[in-house]
């Protein structure tokens, strides 16, 4: 357990907390470390002290203004972290002061028709919503500047701050003996990738899998496929520098589309006839991914954010060959009920988290951390608060 949880909730419970946060006031503007005020949690809310947070490509795309999520300013981004409960609001019973927790952007209330159904991890009230910028309880912010200016929330979480307030549906309790740095990966990237392989694609032993894009999500999908016993895992990326990292994850073969003038699915008969699963992130190669799967049963799983308004480049008749295509949010993992099992699998070595955190920096160097991700030099840069 990381010795990084020293604070006294008895001095802060029920009171406004003044702390540091990285606030962004517009697309592509630098993050500014500001002193903000964080209100106490209201009914069915939890206030947590963030211990570690990292940067995901979703944070990066929103910061760039690539989608509609960045309409509300000023804002506290961040959604991948680990922390400790400082205090809870009325009605919260599943976590308490001092519990170690993971914030999740795709919440689970446990009561709605979606949560009660075993075939989806969406929630009627707390599913991921990039446009949501206030709390569900009263439609207001829990963050404000020293002058009282509201500061908006992001993806149900807002982790680029020393303290954050979340709906209790978006907080998952973890084993206090867990390595907290690694557990932060389960807030988004690793859970999404592994879940895409295990749940959305249901990879079986002996399957053949290809992963398009060897970032954190892609490598996590490859790790999930390896853990399931896939016999062949092909990594596809235009950056050959990522291949060494892929080998450590268990990827067996690599393809750089730049090395051939032919489309990937036409370059090799094996691709056209034998591939069973394809995971990719960028819309421009979606068709290649789809056509590379085996006719009759091949499955394409989409993960990540797609800011492009373009429609899927697939002819309807191509769906009659038995190939399927689906998207997944959070790897189809139900956050509160299933994420603890994934955390246990990680602790037991079923899923290997080593290597995903490539850099560590103090919180005040958040702009430098964003630069590392922008330049493709980092998988996950962990920020210490």
Structural notes for this entry:
There is one protein chain. The chain has 385 residues and is of the alpha/beta class. It has 2 domains: 209 residues, Medium-chain alcohol dehydrogenases, catalytic domain (Quinone Oxidoreductase, Chain A, domain 1, Alpha-Beta Complex); 133 residues, NAD(P)-binding Rossmann-like Domain (Rossmann fold, 3-Layer(aba) Sandwich). It has 10 helices and 17 strands. About 1% of the residues have low confidence.
| Number of helical elements | 10
Query: What is the strand content?
Result: 15-25%
Question: What is the CATH first-level class name of the largest domain?
Answer: Alpha Beta
The SSE order reads EEEHEEHEEEEHHEHEHEHEHEEHEHE
CATH architecture label name of the largest domain: Alpha-Beta Complex
What percentage of residues falls in helices of 4 or more residues? Answer: 10-25%
Structural class: alpha/beta
Tell me the major beta sheet: 7 strands, mixed
CATH topology of the largest domain: Quinone Oxidoreductase, Chain A, domain 1
Q: What's the number of domains?
A: 2
CA-CA gap between termini: 16 Å
Mean pLDDT: 90
- How big is the Rg? 21 Å
Number of strands: 17
Shape: globular
């Amino acid at each position: 357990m990381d010795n990084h949880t020293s604070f006294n909730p008895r001095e802060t419970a029920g009171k406004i907390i003044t702390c540091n946060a990285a606030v962004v006031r517009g697309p592509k503007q630098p993050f500014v470390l500001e002193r903000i005020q964080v209100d106490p949690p209201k009914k069915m809310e939890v206030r947590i002290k963030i211990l570690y947070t990292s940067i995901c490509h979703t944070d990066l795309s929103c910061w760039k203004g690539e989608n509609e999520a960045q309409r509300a300013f000023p804002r506290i981004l961040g959604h991948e972290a680990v922390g400790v409960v400082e205090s809870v609001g009325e009605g919260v019973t599943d976590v308490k002061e001092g519990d170690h927790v993971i914030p999740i952007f795709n919440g689970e209330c446990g009561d709605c028709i979606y949560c009660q159904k075993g075939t989806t991890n969406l929630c009627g009230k707390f599913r991921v919503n990039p446009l949501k910028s206030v709390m569900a309880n009263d439609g207001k912010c829990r963050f404000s500047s020293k002058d009282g200016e509201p500061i908006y929330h992001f993806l149900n979480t807002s982790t680029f701050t020393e303290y954050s307030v979340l709906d209790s549906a978006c907080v998952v309790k973890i084993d206090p003996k867990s390595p907290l740095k690694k557990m932060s990966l389960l807030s988004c990237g690793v859970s999404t990738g592994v879940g895409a392989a295990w749940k959305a694609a249901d990879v079986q032993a002996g399957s053949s899998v290809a992963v398009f894009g060897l970032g954190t999500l892609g490598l996590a999908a490859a790790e999930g496929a390896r853990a399931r016993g896939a016999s062949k895992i092909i990594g596809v990326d235009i950056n050959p520098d990522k291949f060494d990292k892929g080998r450590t994850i268990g990827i067996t073969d690599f393809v750089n589309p730049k090395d051939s003038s032919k489309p990937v699915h036409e370059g090799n008969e094996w691709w056209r006839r034998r591939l069973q699963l394809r995971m990719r992130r960028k819309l421009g190669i979606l068709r290649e991914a789809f056509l590379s799967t085996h006719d009759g049963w091949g499955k394409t799983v989409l993960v990540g954010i797609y800011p492009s308004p373009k429609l899927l480049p697939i002819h309807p008749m191509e769906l009659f060959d038995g190939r399927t295509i689906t998207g997944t949010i959070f790897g189809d993992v139900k956050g509160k009920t299933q994420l603890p099992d994934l955390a246990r699998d990680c602790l037991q070595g079923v899923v290997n988290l080593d290597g995903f955190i490539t850099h560590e920096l103090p919180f005040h160097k958040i702009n430098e951390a964003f630069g590392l991700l922008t330049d493709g030099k980092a998988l996950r840069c962990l920020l210490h608060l």
